[in-house]
Amino acid sequence: MPGVFPVIGKTEQEAKDKYEQLQDLIHPLVGLGLLSGLVGGHNLSKYPLDGPAHLVCYSSGFNNTIKSSLRKLFIVLGILTVLLSSFVLTFHNVTVRVLFSEHLVLGLFLLGGYVKPDLQNSFLLMFMRMLLVVPLMASLSFKLYPSAWTELQDLFTRKRRDVLIQALGCGVLMFVYIASLYIAIGLIPTGIALTLFFTYPVFTALLSWRFFGQRPTLFRWLVMAIILVGSALTIPQSSATYSSHTIAIGIFASFGAGIVYAFYCIIAQKCLEKFHPIPFTWISFACTLLRYCDRSIYFCRCNCLASSYFDGSWWLSWRLLKRPLCS
Asked: What are phi and psi of 32, to 5 degrees?
């Protein structure tokens, strides 16, 4: 490994003499073996020890070694990032479940059940989440990728209009799949909702076959069948806690979220061929925030109409509700 190899002497000349003595003790075959590993594993024994060598061969081998090492490092970092993302997503969804329903923690105390698991509160929670995430993403985007603002401006030119439409479409799809997943978490156990949602790789593979011509191999067909069968086995039976109607809506919402997320992945894959991931992610989150804001205003107007119907001001509330909303 890299390090410091000091050779100490009373004078500089004495230190150089000691260094030369140490170099003379190295066996030529040992030195060639060490040097061979640094240049890509080439056999150096055919070259004279004190003669010239083909440096092009060494440079190519060394570059290949560096590229191979970096490729392995990026793969490991990618796997660790996916695992960390899965953990954070699981913790987030468990927190949402606690907000929706009351649970006994470690048999000691009750926690949760702060909001009713309906569509209105789901939109409220998502709106609060995006209200924090979007400004945070904006502050980080321009630091991580300084050219983000330039790329965002280029999106509004005619030649980049297709990329802008794809990015905005991904934002709408993100809004739909997160809303569906929140609804499912509020109706059925979190683990089951996430298991059904994570069938999205099956739908992603089928969509890739349809749009990109990437036909699944026999092994992938087998894996997709195992995923679907395993997900079906996790579906709960109706009980006093979960009625058959509630379970059916939760299953439909979970699978729906997975299918919508598969479309999101396919469109994002196409968009990221021409657009950097950092500004793309910010646009998706910003578009999702606007949709949540729109729906939250709609539900607020509905509540205003319902509460004022009995105090004689229902006509004013109805006029308020009929005003056009942002699309």
From this structure: -65, -35
